[in-house]
Amino acid sequence: MARENAHIRATCVEATEFMDLSRKFRVTGVPKTIVNGSTEILGALPEDLFVRTVLGLPETDSPPNL
Amino acid sequence: MSLLSDQDRQVVREHLAAIQQPVTLLLFTQSIGAPETALLARQVLDELASLNELIRVEEINFVLERDRAEQYGIEHIPAIVLLSGDQDTRMRFLGAPAGYEFMSLIEAVLLAGTNDSRLLPESRALISANVTTPTDIQVFVTPT
């Protein structure tokens, strides 16, 4: 995603080496993704869902069936 | 001493053959009191650079070259910044990229060495339409 857009910075953090960061973001399992220091994504997601979650978008463009 | 077996070196070499432009791996560390993992990080990067002539490693002293650390927003070491040519790709690694992270590093080098993000067209469209302010993504991983 960083390669796609100049506003995006992507950092891969080795959690056991940086325990202070891991504690700060309450990393208890990996992979765990933190966006702008707040949004949390636990585990690996399919690409479309990951991108949407990082961007703060709904999971699909269509309204949910209620 | 090589970290990879001859067979693995060959596999990685073939994988990296797709690179079309120079990739520089900036390794931020320090000469005195560096974490043990900084040495491992250097070994991993040197091994990667030995597998493709377009890849080079530059070590930067985190203490003595504060301006460069600030330029790339580096606050912890060891840290790796990937440059494509002389352009910052905004891809970073914190810690030694061994184990699982080694595969991620190879993928990142491939991304830096080409101009293709390899994302789905739908993802590219969403990013283009929605990202207008600085966005910081941190992915926490472990070596195993």
Question: What does this entry look like structurally?
Answer:
- The complex is a heterodimer of chains A (66) and B (144).
- Chain A has helices spanning 19-24, 47-54; strands at residues 8-14, 32-35, 39-42.
- Chain A is globular.
- In chain A, strand 2 (32-35) and strand 3 (39-42) form a beta hairpin.
- Chain A has one domain (1-56): Glutaredoxin, CATH 3.40.30.10.
- Chain A has a two-stranded antiparallel ribbon with strand order 2-3.
- With 66 residues, chain A is of the alpha+beta class.
- Chain A is built from 2 helices and 3 strands.
- Chain B is an alpha+beta fold.
- Chain B has one domain (6-130): Glutaredoxin (3-Layer(aba) Sandwich).
- Chain B has helices at 6-16, 36-49, 66-71, 100-112, 121-130, and strands at 23-29, 55-61, 79-84, 87-94, 135-141.
- In chain B, strands 2-1-3-4 form a 4-stranded mixed β-sheet.
- In chain B, helix 2 links the parallel strand 1 (23-29) and strand 2 (55-61).
- Chain B is globular.
- The model of chain B has no long low-confidence stretch (mean pLDDT 95).
- The interface between A and B is large, with 37 and 43 residues.
- Strand 1 of chain A pairs parallel with strand 5 (135-141) of chain B.
What would the keywords be for this entry?
heterodimer, A: 66 residues, alpha+beta, Glutaredoxin, two-stranded antiparallel sheet, globular, B: alpha+beta, 5 helices, 5 strands
Describe how the helices and strands are arranged.
The complex is a heterodimer of chains A (66) and B (144).
Chain A lengths: L7 E7 L4 H6 L7 E4 L3 E4 L4 H8 L12
Antiparallel strand pairs in A: 2-3
Chain B lengths: L5 H11 L6 E7 L6 H14 L5 E7 L4 H6 L7 E6 L2 E8 L5 H13 L8 H10 L4 E7 L3
Parallel strand pairs in B: 1-2
Antiparallel strand pairs in B: 1-3, 3-4
Q: Which ranges of chain A are low-confidence, i.e. pLDDT below 50, for 5 or more consecutive residues?
A: none
**Biggest β-sheet: strands ordered side by side in the sheet of chain B:** 2-1-3-4
CATH topology of chain A: Glutaredoxin
Terminal CA distance of chain B reads 22 Å
Radius of gyration of chain A: 14 Å
Main sheet specs of chain A: 2 strands, antiparallel
Helix content bin of chain B? 25-40%
Number of strands of chain B: 5
Strand % of chain A is 15-25%
Shape of chain B: globular
Structural class of chain A: alpha+beta
Q: Which architecture of chain B does the CATH hierarchy give at level 2? A: 3-Layer(aba) Sandwich
* Element-level helix/strand string of chain A: EHEEH
Name of the level-1 CATH class of chain A: Alpha Beta
Helix content of chain A: 10-25%
Going by CATH, what is the homologous superfamily of chain A?
Answer: Glutaredoxin
Q: In CATH, what is the homologous superfamily of chain B?
A: Glutaredoxin
Oligomer designation: heterodimer
Number of strands of chain A: 3
Name the poorly predicted regions of chain B: none
